[in-house]
Amino acid sequence: MKVYCSLFWGVSLVYCTCLSIIVYLRMASSQCLENPPSLDSTSGIGSVQEIGDLKAYVTGPQDSKLAILLIHDAFGYEAPKLRKLADKVAANGFLVVVPDFFYGDPLDPDYSEVDRQAWLKAHSMDKGCEDAKPVIAALRSKGVTSIGAAGFCWGGVVVVKLARSKDIQAGVVLHPGPITEDDINEVICPIAILGAEIDRFSPPEQLKHLGEILSTKSGVDSFVKIFPGVNHGWAVRYSDDDESAVKSAEESHEDMLNWFTKKLADKVAANGFLVVVPDFFYGDPLDLGIPNVDSPDWKSWLKVHGMDKGCEDAKPVISALRSKGVTSIGAAGFCWGGVVVVKLARSDDIQAGVVLHPGPITDDDINEVKRPIAILGAEIDNSSPPEKVKHFGEILSAKSGVDSFVKIYPGVSHGWSVRYSDDDESAVKSAEESHEDMLNWFTKCQVKEVFSKTSSRARPNIKPYKTRNSIGYTLHIWKLADKVSANGFLVVVPDFFYGDPYPYDLDDPKLDREAWRKAHGKDKGCEDAKTVISALRSKGVTSVGAAGFCWGGVVVVKLASSDYIQAGVVLHPGRITEDEINEVKCPISILGAEIDSASPPEQMKHFGEILSAKPGVDSFVKIFPGVNHGWSVRYDDDNESAVKSAEESHEDMLDWFTKYIK
Ligand SMILES: *[C@@H]1O[C@H](CO)[C@@H](O)[C@H](O)[C@H]1NC(C)=O
Description:
Pfam families: DLH
Helix content: 40-55%
CATH superfamily of the largest domain: Alpha/Beta hydrolase fold, catalytic domain
Number of domains: 3
Organism: Rhododendron simsii (Sims's rhododendron)
Protein name: Dienelactone hydrolase domain-containing protein
Number of helices: 22
Structural class: alpha/beta
CATH architecture of the largest domain: 3-Layer(aba) Sandwich
Shape: flat
Keywords: Membrane, Transmembrane, Transmembrane helix
GO molecular function: hydrolase activity
CATH topology of the largest domain: Rossmann fold
Strand order of the largest sheet: 1-2-4-3-5-6-7-8
Bound molecules: 2-acetamido-2-deoxy-beta-D-glucopyranose
C-alpha cells in the first residue's frame, strides 16, 4: 500500500504510539494517493529559469511589479496541474514563480516509510522557508514590489512560515500539512486558508481553530474556507474527468486569485509606481513669511523659480528615468506644480498628467496639451476658479485624440489635496478622494501606455489619412483601441508598415502604389503578426483576438487559418479569396459596408454561407446599410449618422471578442 501523506503524520505525531500511526495510515492512504501527478518537465507555457539559487518554473509578465510564489506539494514543481494553475495566475497580470524546493528530488511514490522520513529530513519545511528568501530577494531586485505566496500541502506550511515575516505581502494556504499554533501566532501578513472537508491532515476543525487565532490578531486579515465534499489535495490533484472535482479545484483557484488581487493589487496603486518628487526649488521653497502674491518678495521668488524653468528642469529627470528603463511616465502637480504638469503635457515627455488646484494656466498652454490629462479643482479657489477649470475641460474635450477629465471638489479650498488638517475628517476624505482619482487616472493611462508603447514607432509619424472621397483620421483607430482596452483587453496596434503607411497624398506625382503594395504584402503582415502574438503569449497572454480593417481584414482572415488567434473580426476587408475563407478555423465575424466595391455585400454573404457550412466554426456576417467601405474607422466626427454606424460596428466587434476571448 502506498502512503505518501503519512510523512507529515510521522513528523507531527512522532511521539504517538505505533498503533495510532497505523490506524491513521490506513485512513489517509485512500485520500492522499488519488491522482498523483505524472511529472512533466516541459509542461506549461512558461520557462524554467534560475532565480535566487533555485531552478524555477516562471510564467507571466516579466516586468510585473506583483509576483506570486507557488509552492509545490511533495510531488515538486514539475506537476502539470500546478504549472497550469501558475499560467492561470499569470494571465491575471502576475509574474508567477514556482521554485524547485526539492532540488530535482521530489517525493518518490514508491518510497518506503523509512525512505520517506529520510526524504522529509532532507527537505524540511523550515529549509523550504529559508530557500524561498533568496528567491524573494531576487524578485525584489528585479523591481517586484509586492509578493504573494500560495502553497499546497508541504508548500502550505512553508507559506505560513513565510507569513511570519515581511518577505511576503499575502499568503494562501491550500490543504496544508501540519501547521503549529506557534507558527500561526507569528503570522503578520494577510492569509487565506482553504481546506478540504475530508482531510485528516488538516481537518476542518483545526483549520477553523487556526482561523479563530488569526481573527483575534489585530492588523492581520484572514480568511478560512472549507470546501465541502473534497479530499486533501483537491486544488491541484483532481481528475480532469470528474466535473465536480474540476469545479471545486477551480473555485479554490478563484478564491486564491481574489485574495491576491485584493491584498496585492491594491498595492499596485500604492506601490506599483516608482515615484519621484524632485526638489525643483533647489532647496529654496517659498518663504512662509511672504504675505501674498502681490508682494515683491513673492514676485522675485517666482522670477527665480518660474514654471517654465520647472518644466525644463523636469526634462533631465525624465530622461534619467527613461535611461533606467522606465517606459511610461505620469506627472501630477499641485498649484505651482500643476502648471508645470500642463507644460509637460504639451510634449511626449509624459504619458499622462494630473493637475491639482493649479496655479495660473493659460488657454494657450491647454490648447497645446497632447497627453491625457485630468484637472482636479477646488470649489473655493481664486487662482483656478471652477468656471475656468471647466472651460479648460471644454477646450480639452474638443481636441481629438486627447483624453481629459475635469472634476470640481465641492466645499474645499485651493490646496485641499495636500494641505489638509489630519484632524478634519471631511478634509481628509476629500483629499483622499482626489488621491484616488489621481491614481485611477494613472492606472487608466498606464494601461493605454502598453498600447502606445507597443506602437511607439507609429505614433510620431501619424498623419491624417485623407483621400479625395472621404475624410477620416488614423487617430480613430487609436481611439477605438482605447475603447476596446477600456473593456479589459490588452490592445496592441502594431505598425505593420514600419513607419511607411500608404501615401496619403494621392496627388503626389511620385506616388507609386504598386511598389508600396509589393513592399507591404498581406502575407508578410500575417507573418509579422505571428511574431507579435508569440511575444504576447510569452508574456502570459492566453487568448488572442484580431480585428482588421481593409488591408488588415485580409491579414485577419489569413491568421484565422492558424492557431495564433482564437477569434477574428474582419471589417470592410480588401480582397479575400474563397480558399482563404475555406481555411478559417476560429470564430470569425465579417462586418461589411452596403456601398463597397472592394468587398461587396453579396460576396460577404457568400463567404458567410461557406463559413456556416463549416462545422465547428462560428461565424457572423452583417452588412451595414448606407455606409461606404472604411466606415468603421474613417468617418467624419461631425456626421452624426456616420459616427453612429461606426460605433455600432465597434460594439459588434467588442461583443464578438467578449464572447470568444474573455
Ligand atoms: C453622413 O454619413 C452618412 C453615412 O456614411 C452618409 O451617407 C451621409 O452622406 C453623410 N452626410 C454628410 C452630410 O456628409
